[in-house]
From TrEMBL:
Protein name according to UniProt: SusF/SusE family outer membrane protein
Pfam family, one: SusE
Signal peptide residues on this chain, from the entry's feature table: 1-21
Keyword entries, A-Z: Signal
Species of the source: Leptobacterium flavescens
Database matches in Gene3D superfamilies: 2.60.40.3620
InterPro entries associated with the record: SusE
Entry superkingdom: Bacteria
All residue ranges annotated as the SusE outer membrane protein domain in the record: 37-128
């Protein structure tokens, strides 16, 4: 009998412990309320024009999604054809706020990207989707259908650029005043996804062009949102900013630099370049390192190569002995793309290989037989 009582006491104690542990569990997300668009779109009709490309087209405001406990919600503004199911949506951007602005240029790019015909009215749908985790179902708003008439430029404008002045070149954004100013370039005239390779020292800023297309101090410029030189958050601001810098990501070196002046973010990835492939002495097993020429601003190597036909064989350029950043030549047109095709070698021989990343988004290479 004593043994039975002792067993019951132990079980009661264990049950008590388990009950207490329930209070310590992490909160379980359960969607309580979907976000709701709070904007009256009126007739929902937008006739887009080249002259208003930078103007505001759509201003979205929505109520916050409720997942049952306090959590940061990332909201993505999505677009699709009016009869689409958002399985492959176009993203206008992501924010943690409950509002988002879409310019005429962005709406036009999205409409053309979906296949709407220029200068003819078509329909596209937009919505906002709230997400807190890949493990929790997203929270979408209702879908709104817009009647949009997109346009094409009479003369395609040049993509936007940012100058990158800093202590690597004398802190001067004006290419007419100094020997060299590195630039980042957006993918189009109406986007803000700036990209380029820059040899950086320690600190720098991003400077936009003025109405005359010139890059000078006094124009809008962006720096680190920390507001303190030497403190780097990789968040941008044009008000009360500090300098951006390499101090927390590797110090002086050759960087892939990306900046988005709408999302207010920037990123830096230090790179050392090499070639790899079955046209090189070490095949696909390892890279052969290239050397950076700071005067010509190119990467070079002199090497024995064997004949190989692209795209199944040949060589590629990659950074840091890894495939995370690699570039090839899709279409064999001499213009390179991230993740592009292998580059062929016409015949066996000793070659000087040059990789030029100095012109943003127009990366080129040459293979010259010695």
């Amino acid at each position: 009998m004593k043994k039975i009582l002792a067993t019951l006491v132990i079980l009661a104690a264990l049950t008590t412990n388990w009950s207490c542990s329930d209070d310590d569990r992490e909160p379980v997300a359960a969607l309580q309320e979907l976000p709701e668009l709070l904007v009256d779109f009126g007739a929902n009709t937008y006739v887009l024009t080249e002259q208003t490309v930078n103007n505001l087209a759509v201003s979205l405001i929505w109520s916050a999604a409720d997942f049952g406990f306090p959590a940061q919600v990332n909201y993505t503004v999505q677009g699709d054809m009016a009869d689409g199911d958002f399985s492959e949506p176009i993203s206008f951007g992501t924010t943690t706020e409950t509002f988002f602005n879409i310019t005429v240029g962005q709406l036009n790019d999205a409409a053309l990207g979906m296949g709407l015909t220029p200068f003819e009215e078509g329909q596209m749908a937009i919505r906002v989707v709230g997400v807190i985790s890949d493990n929790v179902a997203p929270a979408p708003t209702e879908t709104v259908v817009l009647n949009v008439t997109p346009f094409t430029f009479a003369t395609e404008p040049e993509p936007a650029r940012l100058a990158v002045p800093g202590d690597h070149q004398g802190w001067n954004p004006d290419p007419n005043a100094v020997e060299f100013v590195p630039f980042l370039q957006a993918s189009s005239a109406t986007t803000t996804d700036f990209e380029g390779f820059v040899e950086l020292n320690n600190e720098f800023k991003f400077v936009g062009a003025n109405d005359d297309g010139n890059f000078v101090w006094g124009n809008i410029d962006w720096g680190d949102a920390s507001g303190t030189n030497g403190s780097y958050t990789q968040v941008l601001t044009d008000d009360g900013e500090g300098n951006c810098g390499t101090g927390t990501v590797g110090g002086p070196g050759y960087y892939l630099v990306r900046a988005n002046t709408e999302d207010l973010t920037y990123s830096l990835e230090k790179t050392e370049w090499g070639i790899i492939g079955n046209a090189t002495p070490t095949g696909w097993d390892s890279d052969t390192d290239m050397t950076y020429d700071p005067v010509a601003r190119v990467w070079t190597i002199t090497i024995d190569l064997v004949q190989q036909d692209a795209p199944d064989n040949g060589l590629k350029f990659r950074a840091n002995d890894d495939w995370a950043i690699n570039i090839g030549d899709t279409g064999a047109d001499g213009i390179m793309e991230f993740g592009g095709d292998n580059i062929g070698v016409p015949e066996d021989g000793n070659y000087t290989v040059v990789l030029d990343l100095s012109n943003p988004r127009q990366y080129t290479y040459t293979l010259t037989k010695n």
